[in-house]
Predict the 3D structure of the following.
Amino acid sequence: MGMDDRGQPRGQLAGAVALVTGGSRGIGAAIARHLGQAGADVAITYNTSAEQAAKVVAEVSALGVRSVAVRAPATERGAVDAAVLEAAADLGGLDILVNNAGIARYGPVAETSDEDIDDIIDVNIRAVFTGTRAALGVLRDGGRVITIGSNLADRVTSPGLALYSMSKSALVGFTKGLAHDLGPRRITANLVQPGSTDTDMNPASSPDAAEQLATSVLGHYGTADDIAATVVHLAGPGGAHITGTVLTIDGGQNT
C-alpha cells in the first residue's frame, strides 16, 4: 500500500472504518493488519492482553492508518456491545464489523460443565449476536458483517467437539438470516470457516497435528494470513455481491 499526494493511505479500503473483535492475537491480529494494509482504520477488542493489543495497534498505525484497542471481555454481557459503540465514536462510524472473538471448550458431553456451556454460548453466540445488533446503529449502508466460525460446524471428525461445534453451527443460521435483514441496506453478511490454522490456539506443532492433517487435501496447516486475505476480499469491492455465504478455508479438510 502506498500513499497519495496528501500522505494518506491508498488501498481498496481507504477511508473505511473496521472493528475486529478478539484482534490482539492469532487470526484476529492478522485480520487487523491486513485491513490496515488495505487502507482501513482499524479498531480491535481484547480481553486480558493489553500489551499484545497495544502491539497490534502500533503495527497497524505504522501503516499510516488510525488504530485503537478497546477492552471487551466477551464473557461479560454488554461488553462487546459497548466496545462497538466506543470504537465507532473514536474512529467516526463503522463500515466493517469482523466478529472474530471466540473460545474453545473440548470434552465429552457427559463431562461438560454448566460453566463451560455458559462461556461458549456467551462468547461464541451471544456476543456475536448482540455485538452485531449494536453495530447496526452505526454501520453505514453498503457495509460488511464478517463472522469467523469453524469448519467443525460442518464436519465433526473426533469426540469431544460437540459443544464447540454446536456453537459454530449457530453462526451459519445467524449469517443467513442476517443477510436477509441487511440486504435492503446493501450490507453484506458472510461467514468464514477456518480449518486447522497455525495459531497459539491450535499450533501446527501440537500433538494432534498429524491427526488433523490426515483429512487435509493440501497436507499442511493454514495460516492466519490465509484467513485474513479472505476477509479483506469480502470487505472490499470484490465482496459487494457476496452475502449469506459460508466460505470454508480449510485446505480441503471438509472435502
